[in-house]
């Protein structure tokens, strides 16, 4: 195996301007892939990530694309194809986290609807568009959460349901695309230190106490798992859900 197992491949990482998405984009670039990322509002951060991607000697490009609007998915994939000429790896990373109880009048229903649009409808739309242009050996990896399996805190219903949908889609898409030699897998995480889930404060302390390793994970540790599933050595892994959660699910 060469030091760059993804040389000659093109990857698209949604939500790649920060956190797990940025770490994944940089890891795939280090493995030799040209990498496209998407962003919504953080143009400067996206530009910085592209610059760091290019430091690995590969091509990088950032595209503004709001995953809450599924209509943008097809044009996003068209833009990636126009810029790079192919698409081998899709990492469905973009997602948001909104909480609220089912029975509270003050629950922000508009925010819940946007969460569903981003976490489910947008992922489905991008995957549909990408699957049409991928060839044999294609890789689709979606970010899910251990909340798909366990609602260990109140107020997680809507978020948990969005992630459970992605985990279920993963299994079904693996069946749909297996005949074409395209693998589809999900990575479920719990406590990774990002802007969305910082590793400081009382809630962070509770999370640490609930996993076997007693610490938060780093975005780079998630990226390593995603890179494995995106690489040639995972050719016989499909329809799988890999927990990268510090033993939270143990």
From TrEMBL:
Keywords: Oxidoreductase. The keyword Oxidoreductase applies. InterPro entries: NAD(P)-bd_dom_sf, SDR_fam. SUPFAM superfamilies: NAD(P)-binding Rossmann-fold domains. One of its GO terms (molecular function) is oxidoreductase activity, acting on CH-OH group of donors. Gene3D superfamilies: NAD(P)-binding Rossmann-like Domain. Belongs to the short-chain dehydrogenases/reductases (SDR) family. This is SDR family oxidoreductase. It comes from Nonomuraea terrae. The lineage of its organism: Bacteria, Bacillati, Actinomycetota, Actinomycetes, Streptosporangiales.
């Amino acid at each position: 195996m060469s030091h760059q197992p993804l040389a000659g491949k093109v990857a698209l990482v949604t939500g790649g301007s920060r956190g797990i998405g940025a770490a994944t984009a940089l890891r795939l670039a280090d493995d030799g892939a040209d990498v496209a990322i998407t962003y919504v509002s953080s143009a400067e951060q996206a530009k910085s990530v592209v610059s760091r991607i290019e430091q690995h000697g590969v091509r990088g490009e950032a595209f503004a694309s709001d995953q809450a609007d599924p209509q943008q998915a097809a044009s996003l994939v068209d833009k990636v194809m126009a810029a790079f000429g192919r698409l081998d790896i899709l990492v469905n990373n973009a997602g948001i986290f909104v909480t609220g109880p089912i029975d509270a009048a003050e629950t922000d229903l508009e925010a819940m609807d946007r969460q569903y649009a981003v976490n489910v409808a947008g992922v489905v739309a991008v995957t549909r568009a990408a699957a049409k242009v991928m060839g044999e050996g294609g890789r689709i990896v979606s970010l899910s959460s251990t909340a798909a399996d366990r609602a260990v805190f109140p107020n997680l219903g809507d978020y948990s349901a969005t992630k459970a949908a992605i985990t279920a889609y993963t299994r079904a898409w693996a069946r749909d695309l297996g005949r074409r030699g395209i693998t589809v897998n999900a990575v479920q995480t719990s406590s990774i230190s990002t802007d969305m889930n910082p590793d400081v404060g009382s809630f962070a302390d509770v999370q640490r106490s609930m996993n076997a390793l007693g610490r938060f994970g780093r975005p780079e540790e998630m990226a390593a798992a995603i890179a494995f599933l995106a690489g040639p050595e995972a050719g016989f892994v499909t329809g799988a859900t890999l927990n990268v959660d510090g033993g939270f699910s143990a």
